[in-house]
Design a protein that fits this description.
By secondary structure, the protein is of the alpha/beta class. The chain is 26% helix and 23% strand. The chain is built from 6 helices and 9 strands. It starts with a strand and ends with a helix. Strands 1, 2, 3, 4, 5, 6, 7, 8 and 9 form a 9-stranded mixed sheet that branches.
């Protein structure tokens, strides 16, 4: 069974909307492109390494449209990878699947994602916040790669929205910090739900 990894760039208050450009998702959001001033060589190398071994992309409709308009006309390692591997699109509409290797998922999204997991070894979900909410709610992911940037926006779509279910995660490797303060955190999904306790028990123990 393959691994599904959620790849997300977020602010310190966990806003993940439109990090790369004002045109990505401009609806009621004045800070599109907030990540660009915080990019550095360290975080760029972390992103490159995170995609090693990826053999499929799972994308929401908006992210797919952005990628399909951009990557086929680019060169370099990311373009070579993204253009070659299968792309699966979660959409209730009728997307224009003009990008080679693209397939729209059927109405049973959960079932379709489970089939993808059986078909590939390393599936990446990039951006696609609406899709991410479904995968978090269904616990249909294995890893969460989160780049947290040192700014607060106060508005925008967040990584963990209403409907996120209680889940246990474990840190898979030590955090890495970029030159401009972005912190890379890689978590793995664990079984069960978070436990509770009392500080009285700890202090008296």
């Amino acid at each position: 069974m393959g691994l599904i990894t959620l790849e997300l760039f977020a602010t310190l208050d966990l806003v993940a909307q439109s990090p790369g450009s004002p045109e990505e998702d401009p609806e009621n959001f004045p800070y599109g492109g907030w990540q660009v001033p915080l990019l550095d060589e360290v975080s760029g190398a972390q992103v490159d390494a995170a995609y090693e071994g990826t053999d499929a992309l799972l994308l929401g409709r908006r992210t797919y449209d952005i990628f399909a308009a951009y990557w086929p006309n680019q060169n370099g390692s990311f373009a070579t990878l993204f253009n070659a591997i299968p792309k699966y699109v979660a959409s209730r509409g009728t997307p224009d699947l003009r990008w080679d290797g693209s397939t729209q998922l059927g109405p049973d999204l959960v079932g379709a994602v489970r089939e993808i997991r059986d078909r590939h070894d390393h599936i990446k979900v990039v951006g696609s916040l609406d899709l991410v909410q479904t995968l978090l709610r269904e616990k249909l992911f294995d890893r969460l790669d989160l780049w947290v940037h040192p700014i607060l926006l106060g508005v925008g779509k967040r990584v963990f929205a209403d409907g996120t279910v209680p889940s246990n995660l474990t840190l898979l490797e030590p955090p890495a910090v970029g030159d401009r303060g972005a912190v890379y955190l890689r978590y793995g999904l664990e079984a069960g739900t978070p436990g509770t306790g009392s500080m009285d028990d700890v202090q008296g123990g």
